[in-house]
Amino acid sequence: MVAGAVADQQAQGCSGSAKRCGNLTISDPFWLVDLEKGKSCGAPGFEVFCEKNTPSLQSPGRFGFTIINITYEKHNLRAIDKGKLELMQASNTCHIPHSRNTSVKLRPPFRISPANLDLVMYNCKEEVAGARSYDEMSDYASYAVEGCDALVIPVLGSSGNGNASNYEQLIRDCFLVTWDDLPLPLARKFTHP
């Protein structure tokens, strides 16, 4: 059965070998999208676009995620939210990127790793009395402050080197994304020799 699926893919112009995009090798379960051929050569959700030698995952909306590194054995990748980066570069003033939380933009099978810290940025209509302390065990609802919009951005900074006053650098330094194994029927279908 696996040999038949592989033969079908290769017959349709798909290759099972790893490919490069910039300095990154893309291999199973990921696959590079070939916009010219318009063929799907891998498992859904693992398609990688190579634009200007930069690998990226797409997301709903205009911006996706730039892939910095993939660790296949650990099922994780380091990524940058391109939308947040673009919004910060659009203005040289101190502002909060007004967009969706990064976690909402990730599609299955991907999720934000718990190894990240949450950088919470607020846009308040008026000055807020009383600051909130960080609660490591809380969910995003605990970040709500009356009269303010909150934006939660995952970052890899740790308590030793994460300084929220340098939020632009924290966002540029990326965050960790994880994925689960493919369900067995999909893994068999898209296994390359």
Commentary on this structure:
The chain is of the alpha+beta class and 193 residues long. It has one domain. Helices cover 18% and strands 28% of the residues. It has helices at 2-11, 82-89, 102-105, 167-172, 184-189, and strands at 19-21, 24-26, 31-32, 47-51, 54-57, 65-71, 76-81, 110-112, 117-124, 148-155, 175-179. The chain has a seven-stranded mixed β-sheet. A hairpin with a 4-residue loop joins strand 6 and strand 7.
Helix and strand arrangement:
Blueprint: H1 2-11, E1 19-21, E2 24-26, E3 31-32, E4 47-51, E5 54-57, E6 65-71, E7 76-81, H2 82-89, H3 102-105, E8 110-112, E9 117-124, E10 148-155, H4 167-172, E11 175-179, H5 184-189
Parallel strand pairs: 3-4
Antiparallel strand pairs: 1-2, 4-5, 5-6, 6-7, 7-11, 8-11, 9-10
> Can you summarize the main beta sheet?
7 strands, mixed
Structural class of the secondary elements?
Answer: alpha+beta
* Helix-strand string: HEEEEEEEHHEEEHEH
What's the number of extended β-strand segments? 11
What would a concise description of this structure say?
The chain has 193 residues and is an alpha+beta fold. 18% of the residues lie in helices and 28% in strands.
Distinctive features:
193 residues, 7-stranded mixed sheet, 11 strands, elongated
